[in-house]
TrEMBL record, chain A:
Alphabetized UniProt keyword annotations: Membrane, Protein transport, Transport
UniProt name for this protein: AP complex subunit sigma
Record's GO cellular component terms: cytoplasm; endomembrane system
AP complex mu/sigma subunit domain boundaries: 1-137
Subunit structure comment from the entry: Adaptor protein complex 4 (AP-4) is a heterotetramer composed of two large adaptins (epsilon-type subunit AP4E1 and beta-type subunit AP4B1), a medium adaptin (mu-type subunit AP4M1) and a small adaptin (sigma-type AP4S1).
Topology in membrane: Peripheral membrane protein
Protein function: Component of the adaptor protein complex 4 (AP-4). Adaptor protein complexes are vesicle coat components involved both in vesicle formation and cargo selection. They control the vesicular transport of proteins in different trafficking pathways. AP-4 forms a non clathrin-associated coat on vesicles departing the trans-Golgi network (TGN) and may be involved in the targeting of proteins from the trans-Golgi network (TGN) to the endosomal-lysosomal system.
Entries under InterPro entries matching the protein: AP_complex_ssu, AP_mu_sigma_su, Longin-like_dom_sf
Record keyword Flavoprotein present: no
NAD found in the keyword field: no
Compartments (UniProt record): Endomembrane system
TrEMBL record, chain B:
Annotated region described as Disordered, given as residue ranges: 1-23, 52-74, 691-713
Organism: Bos taurus (Bovine)
Superkingdom in the source lineage: Eukaryota
Gene name for this UniProt entry: AP1G2
Record-level GO BP terms: intracellular protein transport; vesicle-mediated transport
Keyword Transport listed: yes
Membrane topology: Peripheral membrane protein
InterPro entries per record: Adaptor_Complx_Large_Subunit, AP1_complex_gsu, ARM-like, ARM-type_fold, Clathrin/coatomer_adapt-like_N, Clathrin_a/b/g-adaptin_app_Ig, Clathrin_app_Ig-like_sf, GAE_dom
Compartments it resides in: Cytoplasmic vesicle membrane; Endomembrane system; Golgi apparatus
Protein name: AP-1 complex subunit gamma
Amino acid sequence: MIKFFLMVNKQGQTRLSKYYEHVEINKRTLLETEVIKSCLSRSNEQCSFIEYKDFKLIYRQYAALFIVVGVNDTENEMAIYEFIHNFVEVLDDYFSRVIMFNLDKVHIILDEMVLNGCIVETNRARILAPLLILDKMSDS
Amino acid sequence: MDSNPSSQKLSSEGALLGSPRPVRQSRRLEVVKKILPLNSKSQRPEVRGFKIALQGGPGGAGSHNRGGETEGSDQARTFLGAWTRKRWGESRGVETEARMVASSLKLQDLIQEIRGAKTQAQEREVIQKECAHIRASFRDGDPLHSHRQLAKLLYVHMLGYPAHFGQMECLKLIASPRFTDKRVGYLGAMLLLDERQDAHLLITNSIKNDLSQGIEAVQGLALCTLSAMGSAEMCRDLAPEVEKLLLQPSPYVRKKAVLTAVHMIRKVPELSDIFLPPCAQLLHERHHGILLGTVTLITELCERSPAALQHFRKVVPQLVHTLRTLVMTGCSAEHSVSGVSDPFLQVQILRLLRILGRNHEESSETMNDLLAQVATNTDTSRNAGNAVLFETVLTIMDIRSAAGLRVLAVNILGRFLLNSDRNIRYVALTSLLKLVQSDHSAVQRHRPTVVECLWEPDASLSRRALELSLALVNSSNVRAMTQELQGFLESCPPDLRADCASGILLAAERFAPTKRWHIDTILRVLTTAGTYVRDDAVANLIQLIGGAQELHAYSVHRLYSALAEDISQQPLVQVAAWCIGEYGDLLLEGTCEETEPLQVEKEEVLALLERVLQSQMSLPATRGYALTALMKLSTRLHGDNNRICQVMSIYGSCQNVELQQRAVEYNALFRKYDHLRAAVLEKMPLVERGGPQVDEEAKESKEVAQLSEAAPLPTETQASKLLDLLDLLDGPSENAQHPPPLDPTPGDTLIHLLDLPCAPRPPAPIPNLKVFEREGLELNLSFVRPPGTPTLLLITVTATNTSGGDVTHFICQAAVPKVCRRPGLRGSLDTPGEKATK
């Protein structure tokens, strides 16, 4: 089960965070800083899976953005690794420009893909379909 | 209103801003417009500016301007950061409900603002201001833009600032008919509300309505939120709704409904009865999203209850069929990820098969072919394929698969190890670690690769490799492996050192081919990583050396040279000091077949020990060792002992109580009991060891059973040791037992017996022991364990004088290891027939 999903930039600022298991708000910032520190300190040759407390962290770097997913023990790390890539491709597809200014849309996409810690949809077209409808509705 | 063009503009403004403008206000605006120019582009901020100018005096009870905005000069300021929002005084009653919603900074602009802030303080300021406005906006109720406000609030919340005041707003937005509002409202509910807040129950009704509404998107939203933060009560209330949705035609809703069901089952396990029946039917779906969700649901159900597990065993053929189609039909464009068709679904099905096939012959058999097929057909050039393969391997390992299949799995893992991608190597190492217990020989084949992985720069990889290498050591490869591991120990990062050192020592103990090799290995470990070894390594080594009679000379030579080089590694120093003390004569003899003989002078040895004593780096325990060693050398080495006497007298006034006591006692030995010195400082007999930690636990059970047999043994050894000491004594019986607390002799036997209180099972009562009987003196030990404190053992020593005459100068000293606290020894006996109890 996915415990949390973070998008962090290189300076360590959180751009997106989604928790699938409740964590207190002050503990969240602590958690995020620690997680980010361990991910940022790894070089390119090190592998993308880290063990942190009782989670496993799987991270991937895309230019200046780190995507970190925390999972529990039962998940297949490589599948999650693939999933992160899938997610980024979907984002690329939808957003022609910088992601960060449309945070709510990113949330919608993430909600389409992951429900309560489980992956629900990975097909790009189907994920973006409701969004496109939404867009059309708000434009009209 | 006039037909002034500006007022027409005003009315259009009004339309823009969505609220009608009463006459008075428009006139005011007119006036102001004449004063200040109107730029159509930047209408909003300027209009705001006008309002400020207009307002003058106290701008309504709820005005949230920055201070001093009543002056028109502050217009510039408002333009810059302009998102102020005025309230036109419902409290006044003069103006009507028309409000200027001018502000509503869009989310993007806010984000840009925040990112533009250079310092933390600045960012906080920006956010606090915005929060204040948002709060006001919520209070006043602004239907049009509240979703925007909430979105901003959520962003701020994500950054870590408190946002609890948005909760009620979420509820309002959820209840609103507009989709954009609902969307943000549900998102807010997911992020801000959870079980612990009281407000969450209020959503239940809204969700219920939305679920039954029939608009897919809305239902999807509701399900999403429900699955994220639904509490037990909510789940119970809404379970029938969700169940209905499971059967709806639209796949969009169904896939979400299935996963919501997963959440509900997690929260309220009783609901699994409701969700069990639809599963089998849902498995026949073609839609991958639904399949994925269903498989997860079944996994969850099976994990929770064995009855469900039984029930779902019958769907194994169906699952097998689905997976086969997936693998065989190649990739359809919609689901393939880099050449593998829907790896996510494949992985989930494999995981479910694993759970279903565990410990169940029949299902495992059905799966065998399929697994072999998947394993061979998957394209491994990309990560997706590897992910599927990895899951296949895990499944093969867990179910009762054919032997050939298992070998295939191990080979796949071996192949992974050779892969250049570090991620894959990591998962391979982790899985091999799990396998090494059950398929030891298969994993052995990949030993060289594993050992290579030790040298990875990556910390997680090298740690895994270390664990795996330690698990792979067996009697045939112990020499080679230890060589590698020691090489690794020299260069490995500090956090792995302790594990590596103890691992090597353990492996050496279990598989040492010869004693000499064993001693060598331990010596090498102590030299390289002495500070990281466990405490009992010293005792173990001492015992080992003591037991290897033929190697005394060799060990003492090696240790001496090691010590001469470096006196900083405490365990090494302790062992070396002990050895030199015991076998100093062998050292000076200078003959040793096995290693280069050193020509050592007596003075050099003494000088070295003194150096150890005086060095800053030595711990008090080490100093104790050195002191005792010096003392022992006084008998071993020939020549005068002035130097040693000197040292003892110096240390007689040492600050450390332990050392002082020792020195004083040794001094006494020199002065008053010189005739006893040789006897007291004789060579140590073989220590009976408790065995390594692992064996001790295994032994405990045996010990309890064989207590009666164990009893005579300690008696014997104790008695024999005492006899040894007493053999050379002339005169009445006197027991002077060797003082150093590290003497494991009698203490060891006590450890045996004292281990029992620490064992979890209720300890058996220990019978009395007669430990010594000779020349009219009888010593009995009786053991009593007070019922209140199981860790406390009271040992009573009863000395009986059975001879006819007096027994004088009777000293009874007990040596116990430091872990036991001994209450004082009291009493002495003089007259015949008297019993003294201590």
